[in-house]
What does this fold into?
Amino acid sequence: MPASLPLRAGAGRLPGLGLLVLLAACSPLGGGAGDVSVTTTSAPSASFPVSEQHDRIVANYGGVYRDAELERTLARIVGRLVAASDDPGRSYAITILNSSSVNAFALPEGYLYVTRGLLTLATDSSEVAAVLAHEMAHVTADHAAQRQNQALTAAIVDNVVQDAVAGGPGAQIAVATSQRTLASFSQQQELEADAIGIRTVARAGYDPFAASRFLQAMAAYERYRNALNVNEGDETDFLASHPSNPQRISLAASVAQQYGPPGTGEVDRDRYLDGLDGIVFGDDAAQGFVRGLNFYHTGLGIGFAVSPGFSLDNTQAAVLAVGPEGMALRFDATTLRPGETLDAFLRSGWVNGLQTATIQARTIAGLPAISASASAGGWQFRLVLIQVGQEAYRFIFASARATAAFEQAAATISASFRILTEAERSSIRPLRVTVVTARAGDTVASLGGAMRGVADPMNLFLLLNGFDATTQIQPGTRVKLVVE
It folds into this structure.
C-alpha cells in the first residue's frame, strides 16, 4: 500500500503510487558502445529525453530503487551487452524499479526497466544479462515501438478500482483484476527476442544457457506464488507476457547449444552477489509490510491482522487478501473532503448496491467508523470505514454468500485495525537479502531454516539460490538469505 493515499474513489482514479523520480544522467560505459546510464538522481538526462510513459512506469512501480553498488553491477552487465549487440551505437538507460514484483521491460527510446524483485530472483550476472539482452532485443527489433502504438493508458489501472468498489465480481478484488503489462509482446516477438538476446549474451562472454535457466526459475517462482495464493496485483508482471512454458525453455536451451555446451561462458556469480547483498526484499518501508497474518504501515502508523486461513498480499494499489470459502478483502484509503463525514462519503455513490438500512456508526480502536452491506453482480459485500484525521481507511470484504463465517471474518479483521505505537513504528523494518558463506556442516535445511519473515522459507531459499532439495552445499559456497 503506498504512502501516498488514493484519491477519491468516486473520481475513478488511483493514487500517485510512490515517489516520482525521473531518469538521471550518469557516468556512461563505453568502449565505443552506446551510452549506458543508471538512475541515481531526480534530474532528467539531457541526452535521454523523458518518455511520456517513463514517469507513469516509475510511479506505478513505487519509484526508483537506489543502491550504488547494485547500479554499478548492472551498468557493467549492460555495457558488455551493448558492445556485443547488433546495434552497439544505441544508447540505453536502465532504471531499477522499487518493486517486489518480478518484471523487466523496455520502451522504444532505449529505456530498460528491471525490478528489484527480479534482481533478487536472479542468481548471477549471466541470468540478469539474459533478461536485459531479451529486452534490448525488443528495442532493436522495434517490438517496443509496435506495442507502444496500441494505446496503453492509465485506464488499465482505473478499471481495477471501478471493478473493485463499484460492484464488479468479488474475485477480482482479490486478484486486483489487471495482469496486463506495459510491454506485452506477441509470442512470435518473444521467441525472436529470446534468440537475439541469447546470441548477444554469448557474444558478450556470458553463459548462453542463462536464459533457459532463468525461465525455469521464473516457472518455479510462479508455482511458489500460486501455492501461497500470492498475486502481484495491478503491478505488471513479467510472467504475464513472458510465460515460462516448457516449450519456450526447451527452445531457449536449443538456441544456446549453438554457442557451445553447458558450462560455456561466464556466470559471474560472486560479483553479482556482491552487488545484490543488502537489497530490500519484499515490501519497502513506503509500501507497508506484510508479516504473516499482519499488515503494518510504519509511515502511516497503522496496522491490522487477518484471520487464520487468509493470505495477505501487499500491492501498489491496495492490500489484498483471500480467505476460506472464496472470501476476499481489499484494504485501501481515501481522503475525505473538508467537513465530509464517513456517512456522507459512504452514501456518495461509489458503492453499487449499497443497502442503506445496514449503515451503522461504530467505534474501532477509539476511532470513528462506519459499516454497511452491499450486494451487486451476484456478490455480497461488507464495508467498514475507519477515520483517522482526514483519511478514511476502507475494508471491502466480498463473498459469494453472506454466511455467518463471512460476517465473523469481516468483523474480526476490521476490529483489529489500530494505530501503531512509536516503539512499533521504529522496530518494524523491511526484510533484506544478505549473502553468507556456507561453512562445513551447512545444509539446505540448516541454511533455509535461517530465513526470516517469509512464507515457506525452505522453498524460497531453494528458489533464490537456484538449488533443489538434493543440493549438497559445499563449504565456501555463497548463498542468499532473507533476514529481518
Notes: The chain has a mean pLDDT of 81. The longest strand covers residues 354-364. Residues 255 and 380 are 52 Å apart (CA to CA).
